[in-house]
Every structure is written in structure tokens, then in C-alpha cells.
Amino acid sequence: MTSGTADPLERLRALQGADLPVHGGRTLAYVYDSGEPEVDRVAREAVAAYAASNALDPTAFPSLLQMENELVGFACALLDAPVTAVGTVTSGGTESILLAVQGARDSRPDVVRPRMVLPSTAHAAFHKAAHYFGVEAVLVPVGPDFRADPAAMAEAMDDDTVLVVASAPSYAHGVVDPVTDVAAAAAARGIRCHVDACIGGWVLPYAARLGRAVPPWTFAVEGVTSISVDTHKYAYAPKGTSLLLHRDAGLRRPQFFASAAWPGYTMLNATTQSTRSGGPVAGTWAVVEHIGDAGYLELAERALAAVDAIVERIEREPALRLVVPPDSTLVAMATDASCDPFTLTDELVDRGWYVQPQLSHGADGASIHLSVSAGTVAHVEEFATALTESLAAAQAAGPVAVDADVVAFIEALDPTTLDDDDFDGLLAASGLVGTAADGGLELPTRMAAVNAMLDVASPPMREALLVAFLDRLQRPVRRS
């Protein structure tokens, strides 16, 4: 058999050279690095061994069923789950959240127009679920500490509410909502309460064991009916797995889908997917087995030590401030008027530290997000140096400004009718994005001006612009 490419792996390595590094503790978004090469070796070998296996039918691949049940069992012990608890392995936090919303909706067939009550800081995946499943998202403003307001959330609940949500912690700010009060209000009305612990689920229990002050949020809190926790984050497992746990099997049952309404096999799914590669499941199981409970305690201690060092460094800079003291491993920092977070982000990226800009939202200004991993602790002094240098460079450059004509152009656009001509006009007016040799879009090396432009746009316009941008990015590459 002949192949189309002489050495596809060589080309793969070349392509990967343009990506962010997934090891080394310097990519503070998207990836989570244990700092342990052996963890990566175990994960890679397990994924490869099960890459062709299919988790669609647990009777055909019982080893995957065993691994999934053991992963759920580990999480149940971690999250104070009762003996009645059950769980499902999903493809990631978004799918876990989608299933939590879909299951809550389908558990109440009597409700014609279902609603869910969310703090305004809840993850965007809940809005995606609302869009997919026709569940109205009722947003409740949070308090000045960026935590959910239990009284306001209770006031927002009604007979059509099928789900109430809290975060442990919220992604944007890294703080844990007052789950005890939110769950109690939901339970008083017989409403499900889901805790989104996709970020904190595999690290907050260890933080508590290390003596840190962690607000109650697990199944030990009465009224919590389900929890999502991502294993591809602080379990340091390969991408592609998360867990959705329910307090009992009856709560999970509406999540399942079965159909015999066709002449093929009777479809039976626990998740939104049918075919699922066994690779991520095996990789996750192998990593959890390899690290173990004591290993996770040590990794949590390293990650939290890195957080402490980064927080201390931020607090020493007069031009910087914490948006709110973090409860876990997520840090949000803001700048004063001497510079802007978008330019500071570019300067940090130039020095090998990838941090994530967060656009302004409501009355809250733009900020910078850091997801800190265990692998970062060995490099905190390097980060401190990079932060000092980056801040000086950002202050020397001054805050980025968006041309008044570009602002007027954006304000004149209708996000509901944005078309290719409008998008092309915006590109031309801003001069922010060039055209690559293959006709596609080419981003500038520095993104401060792009983010500043998005920051002056309304949220609906941001969405429309980014959808148009993604559409342009994802175009076929035809090779002769």
C-alpha cells in the first residue's frame, strides 16, 4: 500500500510547531500541566492502545465500562457522594453541562416553557444548552464579590424553573458560589441544583485537605443534585473526558436516550454522543490510576503554591490588582489606567507566557485570566520577571485606542444581519487582519488592537463578529 504523504508524522510535527506548548507550565489557559513527564507517557500509551475501541456498546467493550465505573467511583469518593450516586463519563465540561440541562428539562415534561436560574457568572456552556434545548436562561446579577446572590436567585425561581446552577469556582473570577444557600433555596421548591465544578472538582477537595478555606459545595451540601467535574483539567488526564455525577439513578435516567424507531440496532446512549473513542477513557483511567489520591494531593499543593506566589507578585505591582482573591487555581487580574490588559497580555505572550484576555462585561472592566497548574510552580520566578518586564513595556506603550471611525462603523452595524460585506468593511476599516497567501485570514502577531476593538462592541456584536471570523478561518485547504 502506498501513502499520499511520504512522512505524515514529520509534517505533523512541523504543523504542531506553531501551536502553544502544552508542557512547561507557561500556557495558562486551555491546557493543564502536571509537570510530570511520566504522567504524559502513561496517558499517551493508554490512548494509543484504545484509539480504535468504541464506547458506544458497553457489552462489546466491557473494559471501557469497567474503567468508566471506576472513574466515577473515584470521583464519588472525592465529592462526598452518597452510596446512591451514579455518574457518566462525557467528552468534556460542555457536554456534562449540556446533559445536566437536558436531563433537568426532560425530568419535567409538565413544564411547557422550562427555565433555569443562573448567576451571571455561570459558564457560557449553560447558554449553549439553553440555545440547544429551548430552556430559558434567567440571569441573576452576582454580588460585589462576584459570587452568586442566593436571595436574588431564590426570587428568580418559579414553577417553570427546572434547574438552578452554582459554580465551584466560576471560570472568569475563580471564586466559589455560596452553594449551601443556593441549593437550599432550590430544594425548598423541589428544583434540581447543579454545581458546575468542571474546574474545581478535582482540586478543591484536596485544597480543603491541605487546610485551605473552601466553602461547602459537594454532595455533602443538601439539595445538590448533580455535579460536573472535568478530568482533563486538574486530574491532568488527556483531553476529551469529564464526569457528570447525580445524587441517585432516578435523577440521571432522563439523560439517557433510546430509540427503536428504525430498522437498525436499538440506539441506547448515556451521552449526546453515540460512537465514542475509547482512547480518552483509557487515557484518563490510566492517569488517575498512576497518580492516585496521594499524588493528587501533592499536585494540588504545587498548583496552589504557584497561585500564592503569583498572587503575591500581582499585589506588589501598584498598576495591577486582583479582581477578587481566588478560591482555587484561577486568577483574574486587572490593570490601572497606565496601561490596558490587552497590551499586557501581548507583552506576556511575547515573553513566552500565554494568558487569556477577558473582555469587559457590564460594569466590570477587562481583565486577564490565568489557569494555574502544578507544572507552573517550578517557573513562578520566571513569571514574576516576565510580569515586571511586560508591565513596564505596556505602560511605555500606553493603553491601546480604537479609532473613532472604527467605533462608529461597529455601532452602525446590526449584529442580526451582519454579512460578508459588513465583515470585509470592518476588516478594511480596522486594518487589524490581513489576508494570507492562500486567501484565508491572517492574524496579526499582537492581538491588543483586535481585543480592544471587540471590547467596544456590544456582546451581540462580539458574537456576530467572532462567528464571521470563525467562518473565514474554517475554509477547505485543497492540495494538489
Automatic annotation (TrEMBL):
Pfam families: Pyridoxal_deC (PF00282). One of its GO terms (molecular function) is transaminase activity. Transmembrane segments: none annotated. Keywords: Aminotransferase, Lyase, Pyridoxal phosphate, Transferase. InterPro entries: GrpII_AminoAcid_Decarb (IPR050477), PyrdxlP-dep_de-COase (IPR002129), PyrdxlP-dep_Trfase (IPR015424), PyrdxlP-dep_Trfase_major (IPR015421), PyrdxlP-dep_Trfase_small (IPR015422). Belongs to the group II decarboxylase family. Sphingosine-1-phosphate lyase subfamily. This is Aminotransferase class V-fold PLP-dependent enzyme. It comes from Nocardioides renjunii.
